[in-house]
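TODO from last week: model Putative aminotransferase.
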Amino acid sequence: MSTNDFLAEWDRDNFFHPSTHLAQHARGETPTKVIKTASGVYIEDRDGNRLLDAFAGLYCVNAGYGRKEITDAIAQQAGELAYYHSYVGHGTEASITLAKMILDRAPANMSKVYFGLGGSDANETNVKLIWYYNNILGRPTKKKIISRWRGYHGSGLVTGSLTGLELFHKKFDLPVEQVIHTEAPYYFRRENLDQSESEFVAHCVAELESLIEREGADNIAAFIGEPVLGTGGIVPPPEGYWAAIQAVLKKHDILLIADEVVTGFGRLGTMFGSEHYGFEADIITIAKGLTSAYAPLSGSIVSDKVWKVLEQGTDENGPIGHGWTYSAHPICAAAGVANLKLIDDLNLIANAGSVGAYLNQSMKSALADHPQVGDIRGEGMLCAVEFVKDRDSRTFYDAADKIGPQVSAALLSQDKVIARAMPQGDIIGFAPPFCLSEQEADKVVAATVRAVKTVLG
Ligand code: PMP
């Protein structure tokens, strides 16, 4: 029995994997994939296969794998002080430095950062802070949160509810009643094919207005959205969408949470996606790219407007009753400091912008004419290809045909390139580390062309 077989058996017998078909995996019908080492944009498994990771883990290893600057900082921090908490004004050099580095990079209206461990808990924090905010302001009914269908905001109780994907609700008794959903800004999937982009934006705005009307603005606290829809299909918004949505929210005194777990710290070629699209959030969620996933760390960046009310709340009620043991964990904070510094030093955000544009352009040149390619879209170092059965009538495949998963499997088996079959629809997504070179982008595109040919002809 090879080491891998041994591990596969242990894995099947003991390991409860997230986002996995549990029964198939336990029966050994899906393989155990053991990843051993990684460098740059490549990961290597136990069998010595070198795979080009064009999804940067789960779009999180932004700086690329094997960065000694970050691993050294982690080792040094672990040796010096592996842990101390951040309750009642405690901190460490790393956590205080990182908070300053985040605020130095954040939009001007931002005031403070609360640290968590992952994107889900950061969004849970955001919802609690917003409920607290409205209670302090004497608006006890203003509590509902609007999210978009196909949005992804985590898989906790409230955050799984915010996530607008059926799989995350079905059989879990979600969404909770405080969460309501509105139309996704997904032009390619619009119902009315005759709509122009600007007509479709007007339609999204009208949908939001009518939801607010139905529920009552006095009952709605906030709207949450990713600047570019991520897990829901990698969908950049149509021109003018964010400005129009922001205007509606302002009119009804509804806060705006920008979930920048994927877009924060450079994935669109700019520091934050909200700046990229010219809107101003009241709270920004950050995670993945904050440490490039070298250690788990997230944050809720709160604006002056929110912060002032939170301060007032503690003057009236005592210390804020919200805290995690590992908030601002020093090892994670040290990873964050080293990561943000490395991203600056190597100019990686500019690279994400320029090589990302090159990747998107090359993908379009190579595949736009294929009869089963319905849409190629992206922004910065994000790119997606969506497949259709028939382009003229925009007929989609049945889910059972599994075209997206088949294309992604062909990419892996033929050319050892990892792309993600997005969970809803026949879409393959690319979100490589920011250090991707143009040659590596060429390799990703050539592998995609070959995979599409294998699956669809
Ligand atoms: N928000 C967004 C936009 C995300 O993409 C994700 C994770 N993919 C989350 C929140 C949840 O983050 P986590 O998995 O770290 O809890």
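Done. Residues 69-345 form a domain with the Aspartate Aminotransferase; domain 2 fold (CATH 3.40.640.10).
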